[in-house]
Structures are given as C-alpha cells and as structure tokens.
Design a protein that fits this description.
two-stranded antiparallel ribbon; 50% helix; 17% strand; alpha+beta; 3 helices
Length: 82
C-alpha cells in the first residue's frame, strides 16, 4: 500500500449519534481487525476511544490507539512496562 493513500471517510455511530471519521485505508483495516479481535462492534470500540480522547480529534485518537496496539504487539514482553 502506498504511503500516499488518501484518507477515506466512513460514518460511525457513537452513543446514538452519527459521526464521520476520515482515516487512511490501512488504519481502517487495522481498526476493524482490532474490533473483531476484541469481539466488539466497530462502533463500540470507537465509542470507547471517543469517551477517553479528551481534546484530541476522534480520527487522531483512533490512529494513536491503532499505533499503540501495533507497538505493544511488536515490543518484547520485558519492554512493555516502559
């Protein structure tokens, strides 16, 4: 996949309200995979991230969540606490 891939806009429903989020296809793919792995609907995982994001935009919060999950998988177990 090219690093020049444009973000794609998709709608999510968060606590009964529709919200549009733009993410690059690779982030959408991994975000969906993480939701499936957790046994959660995508909207439920997005709502969890939304509830804890503070002043950060939802798209940014999702990207950081996806990256943190990828990094935690890549890190050796003894480096997880750093």
């Amino acid at each position: 996949m090219s690093a020049q891939t444009r973000p794609e806009k998709h709608s999510l429903t968060l606590r009964g309200h529709r919200s549009s989020v733009s993410l690059e296809p690779l982030f959408w793919q991994e975000f969906r995979r993480l939701a499936r792995e957790r046994g959660q609907p995508l909207n439920a995982l997005a709502a969890e991230i939304d509830a804890s994001r503070g002043d950060v935009g939802l798209a940014s919060a999702i990207r950081v969540f996806v990256l943190e999950q990828a990094l935690s998988r890549a890190a050796p177990p003894d480096q997880m606490a750093e």
